[in-house]
Every structure is written in structure tokens, then in C-alpha cells.
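Section 3.1 - Work completed
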Amino acid sequence: MASPRNPRNQIYPPYEPPRGGSGPLTRLWRMRTELLLLAALALVTVAVLTVVDQRSWGSLLALAGMVAVPAATRFGRNWFTARAWCVISRHRIQRTCLETTMHTSTGRIPLVLWITPSRAGEKALILTRAGISAEEFEAYAPELAAACFARAARVYRHRKWSNVLLLEIVRRDETPGVFAPGLERLYGGSWVPVTAASAEEPPDRTRILSSL
């Protein structure tokens, strides 16, 4: 049964599971951060074993310092925390697309091209699939915010390409005067806010005709 709050998103029965899914290249792209972390961990492990085998204790201390110094500074901890939230939000956005109707009938979900820390939380650059629009993301903004453990979720549509949207995850008040980190400053101003009014469902002609 369609939800009274989001009738526009019930494009097919909610009990119908998505079929198929994304291809292997898309799955690798979604897991790129985890794969890079595993590769870095493997390199560090090999380096530590090599240093211990050669009994080069000075090199071992230098390697430990490279890891400990960033973790001991506030800037380093904030940097790692912000990137960790980016990874968490990316997975939660993808999971929300699967659990709602923001996926195609074949199980393909929108592609998170990039996600970066912002002054208020995170910003995700998303490429939608056929049959999915920015208005649908706006209709599911409360679900996205709850999934990402955030205050709110805001949706912006590109002025020229309607299949590209910007999803802002708001976790805290925006700090004035703070320079935009990551790629946030490169997103530019070509974005139009998608409001709840623009995401309303048009009249259901089938229901109107059946009532006549």
C-alpha cells in the first residue's frame, strides 16, 4: 500500500524484491575506499615485517611515528573522522536506495560518484538511473537523514543535467568562516534546491477515473 506521505515513490509494489543488480565494475567502484585501505594495510604490514626482519629499529620508529603523529593531533583525528563518516554515509545512502524504491526494476541503484566532507557534514555527488529523479531523493530525505544518523538531508539538482544531483548530509551547524574542505569548493553554484513542494505527487488519474 502506498504511503500517505510519499505516494509518488511507490512506482512498483514495495514487497517486490529488486532483480539482478549492478555489474562488477560498479561494485568495485563502490568498494574503492575499502579496497584502498586494505591495500595500504597490506603495504604497512609488509613494511613492518621487512623492518623487523632486518632489525632496523630506527626505521620502525619512524614508521610508527608516521602513524602516531596524525592520530595524536586534533587536525589528524578530525581528518580521519570526517573521511570515516564519508564512507559510512556512502554505504547508508546505497542501502537506503535498496530498501526504498530508489532503484530500477533490475536492482540498479544510483551511483555515488564522489562524497566529501563539508562544513555541515558531507556532500555526495550522485548520478541517478533511468526512472529516478532528484525529486524522489527529496521525498525520501527523512529516510536518508535517519539512515546516515544525521539531522537532515538536503537535495540539489544540477541546472543543466537533471540526472546529476547533490545530496547534503547535515550533521551540525555550519561554522562560518571555515574554508570548504575536499571537493566541496569545486562543486560550484550550478545547483537548484529541490523543495518538498516540487516533489509532490501529481494527481492520480487512475484513482480519479475509478471514482467516477
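Second construct:
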Amino acid sequence: MRVKWNGLTTVFIEKAGVLVYDRRQLRYAFSLCPARGPPEERDETTNRAEGVSPMTCREAESLVIPFIHYELDDETAEAFLEHVDGCADCREELEIYYTVEEGIRQLDDEIGTSNIKGEMEEDLRETRQRLYSIRILNGIRYAADTLAALGVAAMVILQLRLWWQGGIF
């Protein structure tokens, strides 16, 4: 990857053969990745990761930037991660976008980290951990709600029994 900063951002990624002149063209340039062809020419039936998730590659590719910017809801993020874990093409697309987005952010912040792929893996791990924690908390909340409902039902039954014994019914 080669990066130059002169008021305009020039990024060349050899793996994908993509040249980005500025941030406004970023999404457009990657959607025309020569290694994979334009998304509108791809066959959606062959772009579905087998047995992994119901998400198509086109759907996953449209979620790459929102995922990088932490804009996905939990359910969508989980489906996106499942698809990216099982689809090498979409994983590569995520790596490309993440590399460019993180490289530009580092240029703007004037910091330099040479392990951008490691940062992406760390972000993916943290997202998986957050989703796992949310699932656990939802299970605990469901159990607590169930116990509370059973407790209310038991109190109503006991109260009805007391009223029955007291002759109110």
C-alpha cells in the first residue's frame, strides 16, 4: 500500500488494483474493484456464503462502511460477521476498505501504525465479544423476566387461595 498526502489523498492498493484520488471517490472506486468486477454484474446465487448466513455478498458489501464506522445494529452486525467469516471475497473487501479508512484516519490524526490488519482483527474480535455479551445479558434478562412472571403468578394463586379459605369467594 502506498499513501501520499498533499491536500488530496492518493492511495494505491496493489492487491486490489484500486487507486483512490480523494475521499469522495472512495466508495465508488472500491465498488469497481477490478479483481471482482462491478457488483451489478455478479450472480447473487453464487455470492451467498454456503451454510453460513442468509446474507448475500452484495448485502455484505453494502454494510462494510457502516460496519467500519460502528453504525450497524447488533442483529445486522452479527449477520455481517457470520457472512464475512465464511466468504473470502467479502473478507477481502472488508480488509481493503478498513485499510483505506484506517490509513486516512491515521493521516488525519498524524499517527502511524503499521499493523492495520491487526487493528481490524482486534475490532472484529471486540465486536464479536460485545455481541456475545449482549446475547448473554439478553438470556439473563429473559430468565429474570420469566422468574418475575412466575413469582407474580404464584402470589396471585396464593392470594386467591387465602380469599377462598376466608370465604370471600
